[in-house]
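Practice problem: predict the structure.
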Amino acid sequence: MCGIIGIVATTPVNQLLYDGLLLLQHRGQDAAGIATAAGNAFHIYKGSGLVRDVFRTRNMRSLPGTSGIAQVRYPTQGSAGNSEEAQPFYVNAPFGITLVHNGNLTNTDTLKEEMFRVDRRHINTNSDTEVLLNVLAHELQRSTQGLSLDPDTIFRAVAAVHRRARGSYAVVAQIAGYGLLAFRDPYGIRPLCFGALETERGTEYAVASESVALDGLGFRLVRDVAPGEAVFIDFEGRFHSRQCAENPSLNPCLFEYVYLARPDSLMDGISVYAVRLRLGETLADDVRRAIPDGAIDVVMPIPDSSRPAALQLANRLGLQYREGFIKNRYIGRTFIMPGQSVRRRSVRQKLNAMAVEFKGRNVLLVDDSIVRGTTSQEIVQMARDAGARKVYFASAAPPVRYPNVYGIDMPTRVELIASGRGDEEIRRAIGADALVYQRLEALKQALRDAKPDLAGFEASCFDGTYVTGDVTQSYLDNIETRRLAPVEPHGAGLSQLSLAIESADT
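Answer:
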């Protein structure tokens, strides 16, 4: 999971990109980067950390231009500690391209081999984004056959990328001297939308992972980029789009609606907030069946993403809704922190229980999901320490039993508390007096209620079905082996990287 944005404007975009990254900070806290285009030159600055920590005034001044792309990173391939893998990535041939990517390729190793032995391109990091960039660059070179670029040529290259790349990818790229390109994988797993802003100098365009970034920057949401579709906006502001995949189908990631996205976003025409409210209603029905009437005194959310579900659950059951945990806004989201020990240590730094709300009460805690169980176990104990008589726990998402290979950090079964365990075993493991999970069909129906024609879903972490059709058991075993292998110390590198580069080909 990462947050990406690209803008073609009529005035400098560096501040717009910075503000857009702040609006997408929830999607990645490991690194941030911006690449702008001024004439034929790219200007790049990126580094490890939060947006506000990476960029200073001097860095922003080094990013001129009226077009740019940016990303906040949460690594699922490569190394969390390697600043060289921060995005954007750059390649200088054939035209000079910068690229940011949200998602995860499932055939990275195959593509790396092809790049080296067939395409004669060198991949310098373990990031699948660098692989994807080089595949795009190679296909652009093949499509042009020595001629200059035009939208038809660019869309042919994207179609070739779709034929070669597998997995999930939402991409925004810049081609030196030409314009901004954005495209989405044929399954539409990771979100991508675009908006427009009418100005006195002409129409400006923005592409982003979530509509909240467009809203905050003053752009009008036009629509989502369709699965398999590519849009190209040249540096004069002319807009082009084309479907580039042979058999596209929309299969949005369910976990986006449960946890990853901001509630005020619209994704694929579906309100994230409305889905979470609906999940609270269906979860309430399950709680009513599982826990005796009158046993619960108060309903409390685990801030922040479970609030809509918890509020609607309390309303449906006629129970008090109270805020028992106060969140420290300066601690990152524990789910997307690298390393189990870091997550565990951060829970009590992030949340503080107010004893006045817990003392002598039977409380129902509502969380968006239970992944590794680390946070849930700590929170249940915190509630008991604060004086709760009984602690019940409800998850707005179904049990997470399988690895996710499409850009969410759930790569190994041994890290997932629900893998190989029944609900009762999980209840005992987290120390709750009762545990209630959302039903998968109820989660799917919550999206269908908002978008009745939606037929497919990416629900692999819940049901073990991988929509791209290329994820085998041996593939999962290989990922698990790599994940659990001892990590070699990474060589010293720059904590931040700043480049000013010019394409010689345009």
